[in-house]
Design a protein that fits this description.
single chain, Rossmann fold, 7 helices, 5 strands
Length: about 170
């Protein structure tokens, strides 16, 4: 008897930047993914998505191996504080509803989980905003943390690196 190996889905990492570009630091996730150079990161299995303020992420994130969400996070610390938390921690520790973007991600992940195609791991990486007033520019406190944000995203990618296909 010949046993055929199971066909497996390709390993996929998704970097999803979310936020509103019209509200200063609120748009940091979108600004961040727009500046990322996919080819510079060197993997064909990496998807970089500008999610904007879209509340429906299901079609973007299904079957991902790892989802990295980049967004402004109001955690009550000083502006420029960098956060890196798993979605499980957000769901377990939240006694109040999360910010609207995280709620969209949580709702989408719940839908995907119910049908068995959620990402294997989800991490939220963000920065405490200083300015959420109308405007197109990020505050200096946020901009100066982009290199740390980039480092954290690359670390998360590298945790899955042995499973990725190099370009």
């Amino acid at each position: 008897m010949i046993v055929m190996p199971r066909k497996t889905a390709p390993i996929k990492i998704i970097i999803l930047g979310i936020g509103n570009l019209l509200l200063s630091d609120e748009g940091l996730g979108v600004h961040f993914v727009q500046m990322l150079d996919k080819d510079g990161l060197g993997y064909s299995n990496l998807e970089i998505i500008d999610g904007g303020i879209c509340a429906e992420f299901v079609s973007y994130i299904e079957d991902g191996c790892k989802l990295i969400v980049v967004d402004a996070i109001k955690g009550g610390e000083k502006p420029g504080t960098v956060y890196c938390v798993s979605i499980d921690d957000v769901m377990a520790q939240s006694t109040s509803p999360p910010p609207s973007h995280e709620m969209g991600v949580l709702d989408s992940l719940k839908i995907l989980k119910s049908i068995g195609i959620e990402p294997k791991e989800t991490i939220i990486i963000g920065i405490e905003p200083k300015n959420l007033e109308p405007g197109l520019e990020l505050s200096p406190e946020v901009v100066e943390k982009f290199s740390e944000l980039n480092r954290l995203v690359v670390e998360e990618i590298n945790k899955v690196r042995p499973l990725l296909v190099s370009i």
